[in-house]
Structure formats: structure tokens, C-alpha cells
Write the C-alpha cells for this entry.
Amino acid sequence: MQAEDMEVPIISNLNDNGDRQRPKGKDVFKDQQKESESSMESPNLEFEYGDTDTLTAELSELYSYTEEPEFALNRDYFEEDFKSHARGRRWIELTLEEQRAYVMRLLDALEVTDRDKRLKVARAILYLAQGVFDECDTEVDVLHWSRHNVFLLYDMGIFTALLELLSMEIDNSQACSSAVRKPAISLADSTELRVLLSIMYLMMETVRVQTEDDRPEWTAARETFKNELGSPLYNGEPFALLLFTMVTKFCSMNAPHFPMKKVLLLLWKTVLFTLGGFEELQEMKVGSRRRLDLPPLPEDSIKVVRAMRAASPPASAMELIEQQQQQKRGRRSRRSAFVDSLEGDSPYPKKQPLVKQDSLDTYNERDPFKNDDARDEEEDPEDGDSGIEGEVDPLDRDVIIQPPPPPPLLRPPAERVNFPKGLPWAPKVREKDIEHFLETSRNKFIGFTLGNDTETLVGLPRPIHESVKTLKQHKYVSIAEIQIKREEELQQCPMTLGEEEVEETPAEALYLGMLPNLSQYVIALLKLLLAAAPTSKAKTDSINILADVLPEEMPITVLQSMKLGIDVNRHKEIIVKAISALLLLLLKHFKLNHIYQFEIVSQHLVFANCIPLILKFFNQNIMSYISAKNSICVLDFPHCAVHEMPELTAESLEAGDNNQFCWRNLFSCINLLRILNKLTKWKHSRTMMLVVFKSAPILKRALKVKQAMMQLYVLKLLKIQTKYLGRQWRKSNMKTMSAIYQKVRHRLNDDWAYGNDIDARPWDFQAEECALRESIERFNSRRYDKNRNGDFAPVDNCLQSVLGQRVDLPEDFHYSYEMWLEREVFSQPIQWEGLLQHP
């Protein structure tokens, strides 16, 4: 991707402490006051991360608010056709056989050549998939009948028929050319595609979600559907590849009328259904480690993250100023109270309070938390001069050591028991870390090294023996390390080891289909993510992602404009949610399937400027984004289809819902942070990109979101670049450093808080990416190149055997045999002397 395609975030106006440079004057304190109020009032977010939101929320996000009038249209087309078949009865009153007969009739009607008639039938099928809402009284009834109808439609083969119609619409060159010529594309240009994609999405999402009251035949249908989608049964390739093709065609401006939000949602749910969600991924990882005879995982990462509690965000500059002023006011009041108490009673001069050192020592021993308090004050990120705060005023000292009352500065006991009893993660050590530790120790004590030998400890002192024992106790061998080692063996001994047995998993089938056009798919997804990001500015040459949300007639009233504005913002948020979840799923599944499949996707993302794009996304008021209320509850499906529509007012639109946060936006932020972590983990060149793009202040602002999982991934990103940020940054951000220590997994021998890492040499960065690229290309060539064994194939040197081989000739060859003989043999001069010359 070209530099102008992927806009790099403008973050040069951020200082090292994470605050924007603002003009001096009164406005500075006003802005800081707002910041401090927002950070002080930010509550803990009760958010549970998962594969998706609730079923109702996921179904409602399929439709834009502009499509709301089409619900009635679907109902009308269904009832118009259903009257002649049902003879006055309703759909929910029919027997199962009668329902099957009617669905078969609709399936036959989909085969007609008339485009308008096909669309009417498709809308009737969509009404069935939506749960025949006109015959239901509650939203629960709608979801019940939607589930019943979807499994019925799948059983009757509707999905296969819809797939053929979708392929026809994708290849409809007339619709594509007319859309390209249009100056403004609206909802009407994608009607057929939207109806087809809506039915397929409803079927996908309904079948994917399991419920307790599922019938046995539904469970069997789910497994069958999952296997069909993941295997190359549809046109010789997985269904997800057809949707990837739609994405690239849209981003290349060849089909600007494609409803991209629906395509991305369907693509995400297809990958989620066929490959599996995060819990299935964890089970697959445990099974893979068991097959490779690796020790079990030290903990379940999903459970550990869910049990974490959010930390208080680092204080802003205004909060620290207020704290200092309060402390000064408190000192003045205590000093005046002490002076007043001395005026009539004490014979000593006012300026000579006597303090006994042993009394102070006694008090310090009596308070077990005093040293912790002092240390906390030293570690406060921007507390000003810690030396001043650490001193105790002589007058305050005398007040403190009065014997009768207990000291007022002690914390209440309830707060003390909140300290965690242990770190949440078990520490890990790589084989490479043990080798590096032994190499350093041998050089120091013996004067020579033994290569990769980690067993021989001769000549090393006893503490080194104990250290090596501790390191080996926490040694962790990943699946990726085994895969890399196996790949090196296959490259070195292709004849001895023979062909590798590749397991035909859904992830393997998807990777094999994506490989030829992988870079195009990645660039297209990042282009859509850039267009949907709230920090992006509209450009004339950027792609138009609003084709399936803008109405034919633009709004003329303020209320309509507000509704459309909410709809557009919601539309962009859903696109970001789908892309972030899709990319994260692909990275995680490809990493488990084979590390080099993960590395090639990662490298394409990095080369397409994914790292600055994600940083650009977070370079905004992230609290406002997470608490955004771009939704109108009364217009959400299925609520709008069952209940009477109230009159919308500007006040009701502004109020939004009553939720504390927007689930999809927080979900998107966590996904993007996880993607950034996966791209940069153990990659020094990419870590330096975080440093170059000044990501530390951006990430530090994201810590204001009091949600444990989001804070964990922010702290991970800060940890890997801490050693490059300088001593002053570490000194002024000690609260952040403490949070990293408490929440992020420890790697023994990893001096992340210092700058002593020998692997951080700047001249290795380009070589690192090039070496990785070579390894990826060798892997793809060995595993997927059909002609890879041409050099090693045995050659038949026997003339009789070669001439005796049977050659398949076309049936009509004997008619032209004499002509072929004349042209290819007799008329060609043969240089017999060439056979006698040495090569």
C-alpha cells in the first residue's frame, strides 16, 4: 500500500508525558480541569469480553436505521404470496409438512429469470428468516420463530440457492458499470445484494449460536453447515473467499454499490463459525500441546483476564496540582491548630518544638504501612518534588507523637486487605533466555562458551546453579518453537524426512485459498478500517463506505439529519468492530495452525501501515468513543418490528440509551490492541515503530478506561517499549511501571524496565524482517508449490523404457499424423554431430 493510501497519524504534537501541547493562558487550566474531571469520574466498566455481543444486538446491527421501512415491504410480499397457499391461516398455524411444502414453492420461484419476481421471492424468504414478526407479540416470539424458520430454510437447501444468486449478482457487470457512473450511490443501488446478504447472515448467526433447547436434528445441521462452509464445497473454495473477493472488488472501485457493512459482518461470522471462537481456540491449543507432548499451559488466559480488576488511571497534571494544594491547606490548618493549643499552656517559645528521635522511631515501628506509603509517594508519576512531599513538618511531627489519640494518617484496615496475594500470571522463560544467561555466566567465570549447551554447569558457582534451576522450572516451550524447528528439519533433509502430512483443517483450507491474493485482502481490509475510523478525515479519493446507509432522498429536517448522523456513526462503528474481530481471529487461528502462516499475515499488515493506523485510531478522546451513544433503541430490530413506533424527537435522539458504555466500541478497542500486541511481540523492529510514532502518550491516555482487559493490553504495549523511552520517562511514570509489574506476565531475565537489552541493536531491524520473509517464502514454496520436488524427482535414463511409455494422443491425431510427421520431423534439420560433442 502506498504511503498516501494509509494516512500516518499526526502525533508529533504530543509531549513525552502524554498531554497535548496547548496554548498558554486560562484555557490551559480549563482544559486540564475537564481532563481531570473526566478521569476522576470514570467508573469501572462492567464489560465481559466474548466472541460476540448478545444475539439480539448482533441481529440489530445488521440493519441500518435507513432500512427500517423495508421490514413492512418484506411482510407485504410474503403475505401477498402466502394468501393463495394458506387459505386464511397464519404461518405459525401450519404444520411442519405444510411449511416445508411452502418453502419448496419459494425455492422453485427463485429460479425464475425475471429479476423483479426473484427479488419479491427473496424478500418473502427474508421475512421468514426475520421470524414472521407480524404474527408475534413479543421479541422472544420473534427470535423463536426466526430460529425455527432458519433451520427449516437450511434443511430445504435455501442457502445453496442464495449462494448461486449471490455469485450472479457479484458478476453482474451491468450493475457494476451503472454504479461506477453514478455521482452518488444510495441504498437503492444495492437492494438485491442487501436482501441476499441479510438472509445469509440471519441463517449464519442463528445456526452458529447454540441454545439449551436445540433439537438433535438442529445440532446435526449445525455441524453439517459448519463443515460445508469450511471446506471447498462452494465453487471449489471456502465460502469466506467469495466474500473476500467482494471486499477487494469494492475497494478497487469496481463495485462501489456493494453493501460493505453486511459483507464484513457475514465474513466475520463465517470465519468465527468455521474456525471457532476464543474458547474453542483455547481448547484447540491445549489439544495441540498434548499431541506434541508439551507440558500443559500454566493457566487459562481467558479466566485470568476475566478475574482481573481495573487499575486507577495515572493522574493528570490538574489532579496533581489539586492534591498539592489540598496538602498545603491541610498543613496550614494543622499548624494553626497546634499554635493555638500552645498559646496558653506551653512555657516554651513557639518556634522551638522539641522532638525526640526515639519517639519518632517508635511511631515508625508501630505503623507497618508507613514505608509502603512513602514508597507509593515516591512512585507517583508526576507528584512534583518527591523530596518535599517526603519531609514531615516539625510541627506535624509533634502533633503525631501525642500519646493518647491514634495517628490520623493511618489507612482504615478495610483498604489494606485489598492488596493482591500474588501475581496473576505464572512467569515464563524461553530456551533462548537460558542459553543467553549461561553464555554470559560462562564468559564471566570460565572465559569460554559451550554454544547451546544448557546442561553443563561445570566451573560455575553455586548461585548460578540455583539460577539455572529456577529458570528451567519456569521454562515454556511454545507450539511455534516446535513448528519452526520442524520446518528447519524439513528444509535440511527433504529426501530423508519425505513429505509432510498436513492436516486438512478449516484454517488450512482458508489459508490455502487466501494465499495467492493475501496482500490484496489485507490492504482492502485496512482501507476500510481507515475509512471507518473516527479520526479519519473525508477525502475525495477515499472509498465510500456509506453506500448501504444513505437514503435516495437526503434529509430535509433537523430531526432527519440527526437520525442520519447517528446512523452513519453507528454504521462506521459496526464496520470497525467487524474488521477488528476478523483480523484478530485470522491471526490467532493461523498462528495455531502454523507460525509462518501467522507471520506472513502479520508482515502484510505491517507493510500496509497497520501499526500507525491503529495508533491513529487511538489518537482521540477514547473515553468519548467508548461511551458514545450512536444508537436509537426504538429503531433496533426486533423491537421496531413488534412494538408501535413512538414519535421521535431531538431530545430522545440525543439521550440515546442508558448503558454505561458502548459494547461494540470497547470490543473494537480491545481487538485492535490485541492485534497491535500480536504484530509487535518479540519483534524489535516493530517495537521501534511504536517508539518512532510516539505511541507511549497515546497508549497512556487509553489507560483512563477502567476496564481490566483493555488496560492489560495497553500495559503490554508500554512494557515492550519501556527500555527505549529513556530514564526520565520511567522516572515520571512510576505508577504505570507499577501497574505493568502487577498485571503483565513476567519473563525472568527480561530487564524490560532498563535499557540493557543486547537484542535492541538498531542495525538488526531491517535484517530481521528480511530473514523472516525468506523463512516464510521457503515455507510456502516447500508446502504449497506444486513443482517444488522437480529437482528431486527420479530421472529415467533408459532409452527403451522412455520410448516404450504410452503417450495419450487426441482422438483425431491419426488424421493429421502425416502432416505432423512432415512438419515436426522431416522438415527439421538434425545436427547429429552435436551428440558427439562434450557438454
